[in-house]
Design a protein that fits this description.
Blueprint lengths: L10 E3 L3 H6 L2 E8 L13 E4 L4 E3 L10 E4 L4 E4 L8 E3 L1 H14 L3
């Protein structure tokens, strides 16, 4: 509805592994590839993740693209909604998403 994210999209899982394993939900930040071309106009809580900062999972067949982590759209997802694992972020990309969340939450 309105400016909310819609449709299937990749997420960066930001909740703790122990919580992810024990519960039925995870917390994630959605990624957008359509806005990465406009990265220079994004607010500081929208984090550009270049394709080389994503370590592709061997079972993922699609090409990895530059994307924007929309920390202002963080949400809880039921684990049954999770599909294919795209890969994982490098440590510097994880730190950048964390800084975006800290900025968003004024911490």
């Amino acid at each position: 509805m309105g400016s909310e994210q819609y449709a299937r999209r990749p997420y960066v899982i930001v909740s703790r592994t122990a919580i992810n394993r024990s519960g039925k939900t995870i917390v994630g930040v959605p990624l957008s590839t359509s806005e990465s071309a406009k990265a220079y106009t994004q607010p500081p809580y929208r984090i550009l993740i270049p394709h080389f900062q994503i370590i592709k999972d061997v079972s993922y067949s699609r090409e990895i693209q530059d994307c924007i982590a929309k920390t202002d759209h963080v949400r809880v997802l039921d684990k049954t909604r999770l599909e294919n694992r795209m890969g994982k972020l490098t440590n510097s990309a994880i730190a950048s998403v964390g800084l975006g969340l800290m900025f968003l939450l004024d911490r």
